[in-house]
Amino acid sequence: MSVASTEMNGGHGQDVWSAGEVTVLGEAVHCAPSVHNTRPWLLAIHGRIAVLRECPAVLLAQHDPQGRDRRISCGAALTNLVLAIRSLGWTADVEIGVTGGLVTATVTGTRRAQPTETEDQRRRALSDRRSHRHAFGLPGLSESVRDAVQDALAAPGVTGRWISGGDEALAVARLLDYAARVFHDNAEYQRELTLWTTPCGSGLRRDTFGAEGLAAVGLTTSRTRLPDEALLADRIQREGVLVVGTHADETRDHVRAGQALEQAWLEATCRSVAASVMTQPLHLAEVRTGLAERLGLVAVPQVLMRFGYPTEPEVVGNP
Ligand SMILES: Cc1cc2nc3c(=O)[nH]c(=O)nc-3n(C[C@H](O)[C@H](O)[C@H](O)COP(=O)(O)O)c2cc1C
Predict the structure, then answer these.
(1) Per its UniProt record, what Gene3D superfamilies does this chain match (predicted)?
(2) Fewest C-beta in 10 Å: which of 194, 209, 216, 255?
(3) Looking at 33-92, which runs of residues are DSSP E strands?
(4) DSSP 187
């Protein structure tokens, strides 16, 4: 956790979280997933109010020119913050405000209330959640696991839709293949991606990238081996691929998509199901609208999530 990003009001009365509790909140936020691992937020604590602000200084002009992923990332961090406040035994009342296009989420611990079992389990999963960008093994997810993950997406206006059947898988494979080729050949895009990539430590870690298959086309670099469409379609059918969408496409919708994404990811983690997410292909308008058209979605696709059981050990650690 960045100490500089966490303000304490220094009080020692009844109405403030202790230094230890502030650390718990900061650590929970720190381990949220974020676009290119940029953690584009600032956390401040005043009394029993936690304020999470979108940080506009994180600019990904090539990958995320509209700041959509930044807001989704803030939503994921907000989920972690709420779970941490609940784990401290407080209610967590959330208000999302938008000023000058930037999001501020204010979470107030108003009164004492024990966390539910689900909240407790998901909070315990915070530090185990990580991106798994390697192939998943067989068997795939059972219906009950799919239902639990999809149900966890509960956030206003957010929906989830599993890709199912050969026709849908092939249609999605074609779109992802197209997007992968566009990003693969875009020198400016690749320059920016390289700038954010680190061999180890706290950036976007190169050793966590997928070399081939579905996860690899979800974060295409100039080195990615582009699979053929049939192979990709086969992977999509074998892996559980969930399209997370929102009814509208405003700033708050992006935050809610992020909140939902993280709830689903944590639910999967609780069940020893690994996941990775991809927004890269959706930054091409023709892919975003093409996906909605091919799947007959009313919702605006915001994120693709893939779930499954790992076949090889994950790269550990997101310091
Ligand atoms: C809004 C958002 C967009 C993301 N987009 C992608 C993506 O397109 N491809 C990908 O492989 N990972 C993507 N990620 C995953 C991040 O790269 C990952 O969360 C981050 O590097 C931290 O690693 P961790 O998930 O293992 O903690 C995204 C995450 C978020 C929250």
Answers:
(1) NADH Oxidase
(2) 194
(3) 41-46, 49-54
(4) H
Place of tokens 């050990």: 313
Angle (CA) 316-44-70 rounded to 5° is 55
CA of 267 to the centre of ligand 1 (A): 17
229 Cβ below 6 A of ligand 1: no
Structural domains of the chain ordered from first start: 3-124 (3.40.109.30), 136-310 (3.40.109.10)
Whether 318 lines ligand 1, by a CB cut-off of 6 Å, is yes
Sheet with 102-108, edge to edge strand ranges: 6-7, 41-46, 49-54, 102-108, 93-99
Q: Is 37 helix (H, G, I), strand (E, B) or coil?
A: helix
ipTM: 0.99
Residues in the chain: 319
pLDDT tens by residue, 83-93 = 999 999 999 99
* Residue pair 9/45 in contact by the 8 Å Cβ criterion: yes
Single-letter code of the amino acid located at 3: V
CA distance 202 to 154: 30
Burial call 4-22: b when 16+ CB within 10 Å, e when fewer: ebbebeeeeeeebbeeebb
Rg (CA), the chain: 19
Contacts of 189 (CB under 8 A, 6+ apart): 62, 63, 183
Which positions ≥6 away from 181 have C-beta within 8 Å?
Answer: 226
For residue 83, give the H/E element and its range: helix 68-87
